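Worked example 2:
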Amino acid sequence: MTLKNNQSGEGIVIIAGRGSLPIELAVGAVEAGKVPFLVGIKGEAGPDIERFDHVYLAWGQMGRMFKLIKERQISKAIFAGGVSRPTSIKQFKLDWMGAISAPKIFRLMLNGDNTLLSGLAGIFEQQGVQMVGAHNVVPNLVAGKGVIAGKKPNKLQCTSIEKAFGACKQIGALDIGQAAVAEQGKVIAEEDIKGTDAMIERVTHMRTQGRLPKSSKDGVLVKAMKPGQDMRLDLPAIGPDTIAGIVRAGLCGIGLEAGHTLILSRDETLKAANAANIFIFGLESENMVDRK
């Protein structure tokens, strides 16, 4: 599927990082009658964005980015995909607007992801480009309530879900992370700046070292939105790689905050979960899991 600039329909710019989300959003935008323009961050976005109208830009090329957006008369934007924070000045290629915005961006980068993304969204909106969320573009990515894959969690697993959910909200309030793992009635890992995959690998390492039982009947991963988080920015997500990771870690299921988390590559993810006998359950913060 390739889109040309002269196709009709409302345009939307997708700021593309790693993973499948940018492409899933682009495909969903086309299906909704919109015309996506993908701005791939160099070193992050994959070659799949080349199926669509696209450009690769380095950190700091904000002037060129907004020029291209205005040429296409686009008024809506979305951030999509994983992005690693720059670790070297060599990763920046500052143009005139990037140079002007750099001091503000560098200050934002000293804070958590939520603060950084909110600040970047403010820059877009100053340029007349409204930020929207993945749930606005492709609603079927959003996790619903109840059993999504596998069996309904039992009472022991429900206890682990509740423990991990509480931890998610605590670290989320500090703008640290969006995920936690619990088993045997306690939280054993929390997400930090390295992300969910690194946290799951820590659990795998603990199990191989004998610090956790060889098998778990109640170990769960939970992902939840940070308290007060703008739903347009960086919703927590799982995908096929998440399933593979929790299988290696010896966990038995995943709890997702219903309405506030995304399931990427949905068919593949649910197929992998069912094949591995992993449950995925959408929970509400008000009443958590119905134990009946």
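The CA atoms of residues 28 and 139 lie 9 Å apart. The chain has two domains: 11-137, 142-283.
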